[in-house]
Design brief:
Helix Hairpins; mainly alpha; about 280 residues; flat
Length: about 280
């Protein structure tokens, strides 16, 4: 959910508030059950789309797959309508990232019905997998997701400097290989030799270019050994940043009435994003 002020708005009482709590929060038994059921529906619906693309399976189970596809299309349509109904500012939710993802969960099926030959619309249905990220707000995933985002932002400068060093090393070693091996062994230019250096240092090893001289093989061996360490450095940088920013308090899916930002602490009285008073923490 976005942390912008006055985002979608949460109803204050009645059936809309109860439905909002079930759909948008996961600290209650009903909310967890809804999210888990939705997760299963998303994964099964994507599996249906994938199986429908296999000609042998589609020829044998085409009617069943089509029936399942329309079942999930109607299910996601009803769920989207419920999400719009239980927020006070449905237009803002519809324009949000997850609002667009929710719309794409069922809109392609209707477009295929209107335009039967538009095969591209069928592939768009795989975007339903994006909705899995909504379900991953359960429990500690809220904190871990935000911690990862902060760690990536905090370590961006270090990673950029590290990548610049790797780029210089690849350029120098690639140029060296161009001089050592030469065009007669396939290293026809410096860009070609740099391409080989990147493939070797990342331990991909396509095999389209290989060193033939003893010195070239020695350089290649050094680059392969360097590649192992180089691949581990960005991981270490991000991990160190995450450790430094680690959260100690358990996360919740407690939601602000005004801006719908999530992850507030269980004893918080005011929203950390917009400053509005928070409702009482409800959980089972």
């Amino acid at each position: 959910m976005s942390s912008a002020k006055q985002r979608y708005g949460r109803p204050e009482a009645g059936l809309r508030l109860r439905l909002h709590t079930i759909i948008f929060e996961a600290d209650t038994r009903a909310g967890r059950a809804f999210d888990l059921a939705l997760l299963v529906a998303i994964l099964v619906s994507v599996s249906v789309v994938i199986m429908d693309s296999v000609e042998r399976i589609a020829a044998r189970y085409g009617d069943l797959l089509e029936a399942l596809e329309w079942f999930f299309t109607l299910l996601f349509t009803v769920e989207y309508a419920a999400r719009l109904w239980c927020v006070r500012q449905p237009a803002r939710y519809a324009r949000s990232f997850f609002g667009i993802v929710d719309l794409l969960a069922f809109l392609p099926s209707y477009l295929v019905l209107l335009f039967p030959h538009a095969v591209a619309f069928q592939g768009i249905r795989v975007l339903r997998l994006l909705r899995v990220f909504r379900i991953l707000k359960l429990g500690a995933y809220i904190t871990e997701y935000r911690a990862l985002g902060r760690a990536l932002r905090g370590s961006a400068r270090k990673i950029l400097i590290f990548l610049s060093v790797v780029l210089m090393a690849v350029l120098l070693l690639g140029t060296t290989m161009y001089v050592v091996e030469g065009p007669e062994h396939g290293y026809t230019s410096i860009p070609t030799a740099v391409y080989w250096a990147i493939v070797t240092m990342t331990t991909v090893g396509y095999g389209d270019l290989t060193p033939h001289t003893d010195l070239g093989k020695l350089i290649a061996s050094v680059m392969m050994l360097l590649g192992w360490g180089i691949l581990a450095v960005p991981t270490g940088i991000v991990t160190a940043e995450m450790t430094a920013r680690r959260f100690n308090r358990p996360p919740t899916t407690r939601t602000c009435h005004e801006c719908l930002s999530e992850g507030h602490e269980s004893d918080a009285r005011f929203c950390k994003d917009c400053g509005a008073s928070l409702p009482a923490y409800t959980h089972d």
